[in-house]
Each structure stands twice: as C-alpha cells, then as structure tokens.
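Please complete every field before forwarding. Incomplete forms are returned to the sender.

SECTION A: IDENTIFIERS
Entry label: holo-444
Bound molecule: zinc ion
Molecule representation: SMILES string

SECTION B: INPUTS
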Amino acid sequence: MQLYNSYSQKIEELKPIEEGKVSMYVCGPTVYNYPHIGNVRPIIVFDTLKKALEAQGFDVMYVSNYTDVDDKIINTAIEQNTTEKEITKKYIEAYDQTRADLNADMPDVAPKVTETMDEIIAFIAQLIEEGAAYEIDGDVYYRVSSNTKYGELSHQKIEDLLVGARIDENDKKEDPLDFTLWKKTDKGIQWDSPWSKGRPGWHTECVVMINDVFNRSLIDIHGGGLDLKFPHHENEIAQNESLHHTHLANMWVYNGMINIDGIKMSKSLGNVWWAKDLIALYGGNVIRWVMISTQYRAPLNLNEKAFESAKKELQKITNAYKQANILLQVNGVSSTQEIDHPLWDAFIDALNDDLNTPNAITTVLECVKKINQAQRQKPLDCDQLTKYVATLEAMMRVLGIRLNRIVMDEEEKKLYNDWKEAVKEKNYEKADQYRACLIEKGIL
Ligand SMILES: [Zn+2]
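SECTION C: PREDICTED COMPLEX
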C-alpha cells in the first residue's frame, strides 16, 4: 500500500512497525451535534483504507476517539438546559448510527476524553517536569521554544507562524505560539488537577489517547481531515516529541475538504448537509459511492447531480448482479469463493496506489461489463459467470457497498423458467402474466 505521507510530503510504501499489523488512529468528532457530510468523508475514507488493507491480509487496529469535553459541548448543554453527559451520549449514538448506516466498521477502540483524564493530567505533569510546559495562574501552556522541531508536519517556519500568532496575543503566555494544555475554568464540567479545577486542551487529549490505547508512542498511520494538520496535529506531534522523541505516526494521511456547489460548508452560510438527511434520501450505498468516486486527497464538490449520477451508476451494478444471480440460481449453480484474478489484482493495485478509488471503480465497472457479457453468452458458461459474480461481491465488500442477494425458492425458479419458455414460444399474453408475477416478487 502506497500512501501520500504529509510528513515527508512523498508517496511512500506503508511499512508496518509490526509485520502484518497496522495501527491507525483517526481524529474523531467533538460530539455536540449530528454528523454532517464533512464528518462523513473521513469515516468513509479511513474505513475504505482499513477494508483495503484487511483484504490483503493485514490485521488493522483502528482507533478513533470521541472528543466529549469541549466548550461547544458545554455551551450546548447550557442552551438546552441539560448536562454535558446527556449531550455527548446523544451525539455519540448518532455517530454510531451514521457509521452503521454507511456500512463503516466500528473502531476497534473508541476512547473518550472523559475516560482518559488521569492519563491526560499525568502527561501534562510530565511535560512540565521536562521543561516543555509551564503553569501560569492555574493554566498550563506548551513551551514551543523548547522544541526545535516545531513545524515539522505542516512544514512551516517558527518565524512565519509568529507573524500570524501575534494577532491574538495573550500576554499571560511566554510566547504567542504556546498553546493550552490545561485551562482553568469555573464554567461547565471540570476536573481537579495539580494546577486548578479545569479542563484539558484538545491537542493533548488526542496524543494521550493514542499513547494510552496503543500503548506505544509511534503508530503506523495517523489520519484526519486536512483542516486538522495545523495546529491540531502539529501540536500533537510537538508534545510527543518532547516526551517520547518520536513523531507519533510514521504516516500522516489526510482527506481533502468538501464543498457544497463550490462553496465551503458552514453554519453561517446555511449550507450544512446533515448525514442523517442524506442517508434518508439516498441510502448509505449512494453516499459511499459519491465519496469514493473522487480520490480521498482531492477536494470533493458535492451537489444533487453528484448523488443522482452515483445512484444511476450503482443501479447498473446492482441490476447486473441481481440478474446474474437469478440466472445462476435457475441453472442450479451455487455460489463460489473463487474469483477472477486479473480483475481482482487490477482492483487491489488501484487501491494500493494511494487509495485510488476512482481507478478501483473502473475495475468494478469492467467486472460488471464481463458479468453482462457472460449472461448473454450462449451456451452459458456458469463457472465463468460465477467467478465474475464472486469477484464483484469481493470488490464491493472492500468498498463498503452492500449488495442484496436474492435467494429464489423452487416455485420462483419455476415461474422464471415458465416466463422464459413463454417468451420463446412467443406466447406474449402468458409471458406478460409471468413477468408481472416476477416483478411483484421483486425478482425482475
Ligand atoms: Zn485529534
């Protein structure tokens, strides 16, 4: 598997730290609202990457957190006159439902900030001990000047960063670039710490959850949306460098952003598309197909047309699959695990080329073409058709697309054969009756 590594700014071969095993962490959502289509992209991209790796025999440990401590959660709880716990419970459930609707695997571990608090406080204390952090009036800041590697992920120079940082200068900090590890507060949910009653900073939470869940300071893949690279991931790396002297992940992989009809999605513009609405309208398959029709790194422009054309393309695939299955069943052929190797290899090669899902889709369509050709072939080569069908099933499993397999009973098989016979005999009146029955049963 070759992936674009933002850290080295190169396409690199994935070389797992432990042979045959891949450790992958993807920054999860702050749970104060329903997931929107922008949250869906990383879910689908990294789930597809996981499935592509698993299809080649890798054992993937996939971890994605829930940020369940945040000002936005506290404000939402106050607005709705309820507790933070109630808010986060509701939206974690909504996220889990969205994942299920999109046929995305649940993470192997989904850590929560509230359940990692002791480790977070211990981590901050260690950074202070190392001289990489300092406390002022109950707040704790990371000391950027203690880390000569700062900017290593986003490839920015400290001097350039300072120009931007000076604008919102906080005179408590030693340096405008220093970021918050612990914030003293009397608003909302708080924890006791050696410095004050307060809450941790977001950048610390993720790095501690990675160290804690994987029980290591270097993993194979760290993923997320491109907007997380700076400052979030730069700051995750900085803290890890200070304590563990590694850059946290060998590969830093980012999905591109989503635009709605060419415009950045935002609440203030009123163009937020909620995942649950799109799922109700189009179903999980169509949404997945739209997302994988563009390579994960490219910006993705969405509009109604994109969903409609994905729907049509998927219909062609599912129709071919359905008709081939019927044909095989009436011919008494059972399914096989055996696949067509040239087609499958081309599919995997496309995915291994920096997860090039558009090229993988091309091989899927090639497989569908072969299925359609094989169905028309006389005499019918059942072995070949079965192989193509099994190949399509395997490809769609990796892409996370659900295929509905029709299982016909004897009566239905007889009806189908009677229909074909009536057509052959040019008894159109009878053929139409059979056909209507088959349509009613959902077979045609
Ligand atoms: Zn994160």
